[in-house]
Amino acid sequence: MRPYTRECDALAVQLEEHKDELFTDVPNEWGDHFEYEEFLGEIKTALVMKSWIEEISEEKLVEQFNVQPGDLYRTIENAKWLLHATDELASLFGEKEVLPLTNELVERVSKGIKKELLPIVRLEGVGRVRGRIMYNAGYRTIEDIKHASVEDLTNLPLVGPRLAKKIKEQVGGFMKKETWEKLETGQEFKQKAISDF
């Protein structure tokens, strides 16, 4: 990602703070200015990706880093590809200690989530926003979700009866036959919709 002139000072500060974490030499700022600016663009890309996996919203990323949604999407896709390639190479060369980290990062970059949401967002129909809602409501593990009632799940924002049913089916939680039937016929949804007015 190309840095804007107004961003260069802030990126240079970030570069200094994280200099020890880099695997390459930093170009001389006073030598080849173009090369140094290009390097700051790489720092910007790393900061955007770090913010993405820390669950910063797309809108905030666009605003904070002056990045367009298409560029963000392309950067995420490139990062996924590179991480997948790293995962495959680690496996090929027997670097087994790297595999858990690369697997985790592929998922985190794909979904834009913190590590704590990994088990939850593996459920079909649950992405970064619903995952965070469920986690913040106390459903932090699959076991927590398994023991949750459909009513409790349905009361969460962005989780309707159909999704609650799908989630319960995936986690293998116990549900009363009457509750299944209400969900099947849509009665639960109608009652909730009426009570919302």
What do these coordinates show?
It is a single chain. With 197 residues, the chain is an all-alpha fold. It has three domains: 1-67, Sec63 N-terminal domain-like fold (Orthogonal Bundle), CATH 1.10.3380; 69-112; 115-195, Orthogonal Bundle (DNA polymerase, domain 1). The protein has twelve helices and no strands. Helix 1 packs across helix 2 (33-53) and helix 4 (69-92) runs antiparallel to helix 5. Residues 188-197 have low confidence and may be disordered.
Give the topology, please:
Layout: H1 8-17, H2 33-53, H3 58-65, H4 69-92, H5 99-111, H6 118-121, H7 128-136, H8 142-147, H9 150-154, H10 161-171, H11 177-185, H12 187-195
Query: In this structure, how is the largest beta sheet organized?
Result: none
Give Rg in angstroms.
22 Å
CATH H-tier superfamily of the largest domain: 5' to 3' exonuclease, C-terminal subdomain
CATH architecture of the largest domain: Orthogonal Bundle
The helix/strand order is HHHHHHHHHHHH
Amount of helix: 55-70%
Spatial shape: elongated
Low-confidence stretches: 188-197
CATH topology of the largest domain: DNA polymerase, domain 1
Number of strands: 0
Quickly name the level 1 CATH class of the largest domain: Mainly Alpha
Beta content comes to: under 5%
Number of helices: 12
Structural class: mainly alpha
